[in-house]
């Protein structure tokens, strides 16, 4: 039977094609039982690579059956036919994904970004508390429901973390995800802490939310890696971001895995907790933004454009704000001078879909 006939027998009326790859596709469908539209991921075992069938697909199915969180796409049903096709029936992101949303509308205002980022961070905390890691966090995998709330999707690279005899989480060696969202330790092929890897990707996502552009240009991985390892984060001057927001991004995009924030520290950060923002703002301004120094070559334009085409270009100014801050694990709200400043720039890397690598 074809897909439409299979789904019809299960009570679904197949709709339009939402996406398609070499061995999987996603269709919309109307559920006669639920009385609303759903998404159906259809995987053809005959076309899928062995590594996917033996490792990634079983993990995904196991994890999807465990998850139940308001900011994670719901899985309603998983079934398989005798001819080797797996059907995963899921909640439909009726407003599309976050990447297309930002490409169409531009960067989010901080209040909107805070709401969406809190939803995403809550979902990641839920997963991490269960020792589940996503390992492919990117804007394309963040769907929006009818009210534009975040729904985390695509657990194809997720896994349950293993622990050694002493109870410590074991390192991962498999490169998962997209280069533009990948942490430097992953790009270097170093065995990595998967939860810490997720945090870096969260930092990239928040940057995209508030800047409407990528923090790093992945067209040259070697150059990108060098910039990341120097802990350089360039913020577009035109966005006028608050110090608290830049502080949080800077602390998530920390190349030192021992100093990168944990998910609990993110959720308790002053930017994510609006009531505490006023207290930390003065400290950040005192220690960081009061320093204004030109960066050598700061008037040099980036080769690629970061902001939406329809937005006006900011005026060129050779002077750049220097945001100096240091990740401190001793106090979640403490911000002090840093050895590597982030910079305010006119342009950055283009906002585009990321290719997935394994």
From TrEMBL:
A GO BP annotation: spermatid development
Catalytic reaction list: L-threonyl-[protein] + ATP = O-phospho-L-threonyl-[protein] + ADP + H(+); L-seryl-[protein] + ATP = O-phospho-L-seryl-[protein] + ADP + H(+)
Gene3D superfamilies: Transferase(Phosphotransferase) domain 1 (1.10.510.10)
Obligatory cofactor(s): Mg(2+)
Keyword match rRNA-binding: no
List of residues binding ATP: 41
Locations listed in the record: Cytoplasm
Keywords per UniProt: ATP-binding, Cytoplasm, Developmental protein, Differentiation, Kinase, Magnesium, Metal-binding, Nucleotide-binding, Phosphoprotein, Serine/threonine-protein kinase, Spermatogenesis, Transferase, Ubl conjugation
UniProt family annotation: Belongs to the protein kinase superfamily. CAMK Ser/Thr protein kinase family.
Protein name: non-specific serine/threonine protein kinase
Protein's organism: Catagonus wagneri (Chacoan peccary)
């Amino acid at each position: 039977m074809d897909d439409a006939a299979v789904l019809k027998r299960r009570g679904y009326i197949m709709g339009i094609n939402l996406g398609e790859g070499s061995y999987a596709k996603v269709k919309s469908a109307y559920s006669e039982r639920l009385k609303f539209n759903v998404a159906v991921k259809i995987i053809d075992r005959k076309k899928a690579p062995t590594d996917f069938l033996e490792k990634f697909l079983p993990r995904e199915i196991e994890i999807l059956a465990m998850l139940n969180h308001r900011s994670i796409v719901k899985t309603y049903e998983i079934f398989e036919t005798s001819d080797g096709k797996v059907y995963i029936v899921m909640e439909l992101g009726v407003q599309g994904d976050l990447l297309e949303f930002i490409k169409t509308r531009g960067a989010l205002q901080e209040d909107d970004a805070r709401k969406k980022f809190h939803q995403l961070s809550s979902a990641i905390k839920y997963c991490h508390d269960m020792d589940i890691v996503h390992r492919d966090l990117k804007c394309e995998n963040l769907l929006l429901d009818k009210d534009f709330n975040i729904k985390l999707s695509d657990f194809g690279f997720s896994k349950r973390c293993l622990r050694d005899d002493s109870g410590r989480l074991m390192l991962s060696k498999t490169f998962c995800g997209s280069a533009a969202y990948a942490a430097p330790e992953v790009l270097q092929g170093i065995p990595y802490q998967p939860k810490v890897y997720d945090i870096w990707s969260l930092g990239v996502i928040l940057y995209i939310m508030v800047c409407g552009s990528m923090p790093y240009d992945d067209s040259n991985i070697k150059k990108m890696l060098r910039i990341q390892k120097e802990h350089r984060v360039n913020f577009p001057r035109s966005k006028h971001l608050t110090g608290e927001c830049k502080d949080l991004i800077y602390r998530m995009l920390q190349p030192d895995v021992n100093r990168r924030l944990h998910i609990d520290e993110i959720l308790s950060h002053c930017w994510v907790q609006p009531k505490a923002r006023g207290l930390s703002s003065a400290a950040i301004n005192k220690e960081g933004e009061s320093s204004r120094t030109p960066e050598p070559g700061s008037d040099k334009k980036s080769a690629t454009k970061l902001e939406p085409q329809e937005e006006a270009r900011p005026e060129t100014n050779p002077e750049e704000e220097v945001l100096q801050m240091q990740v401190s694990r001793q106090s979640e709200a403490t911000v002090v001078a840093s050895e590597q400043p982030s910079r305010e720039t006119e342009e950055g890397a283009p906002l585009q879909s990321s290719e997935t690598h394994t």
